[in-house]
Amino acid sequence: MVRTCDYPGCSNKDVADSPQSFHRFPVTDVALRKLWVLALGIHVHTKVEKIKKLRVCSAHFSDDDFLSTCPGQRQMKKRILKKSAVPAPQVNKTVAYQLIYEA
């Protein structure tokens, strides 16, 4: 079964040659999990069992959200999120456009 990104509107798939990395929700850190849930527009009272199955691809994080290698270290095969990373919030593009251009 091919896993897809659960970020609203994203169709990235976790396949062998995908340039994206896929990341699980933080389930043990309740405060951080709430931030992820809010960022994706998921209901705050969604059960943890359902949240455990969700994945978000690397397209929704900034480069600063990932651990970097130190000089002299080998390049990491897999991109690893920092423990504090939160996906970029889902933005209503119509509202954002109105705020920027019609203000």
TrEMBL record:
What cellular component terms from Gene Ontology apply here? nucleoplasm
Q: Belongs to which family?
A: Belongs to the THAP1 family.
Ordered alphabetically, the record's keywords are:
Cell cycle, Coiled coil, DNA-binding, Metal-binding, Nucleus, Transcription, Transcription regulation, Zinc, Zinc-finger
InterPro entries registered for this protein in UniProt = THAP1/10, THAP_Znf, THAP_Znf_sf
Protein's job: DNA-binding transcription regulator that regulates endothelial cell proliferation and G1/S cell-cycle progression. Specifically binds the 5'-[AT]NTNN[GT]GGCA[AGT]-3' core DNA sequence and acts by modulating expression of pRB-E2F cell-cycle target genes.
Q: Which domain of life is it from?
A: Eukaryota
Q: Which cellular compartments is it found in? A: Nucleus, Nucleoplasm
**Alphabetized Gene3D superfamilies for the sequence:** THAP domain
Domain (THAP-type) spans: 1-90
Keyword match DNA-binding:
yes
For this entry, the protein name equals: THAP domain-containing protein 1
Give the Gene Ontology MF terms in alphabetical order. Answer: DNA-binding transcription factor activity; sequence-specific DNA binding; zinc ion binding
Identify the species of origin.
Astyanax mexicanus (Blind cave fish)
Q: Does the keyword Transmembrane apply?
A: no
- Give the GO biological process terms: endothelial cell proliferation
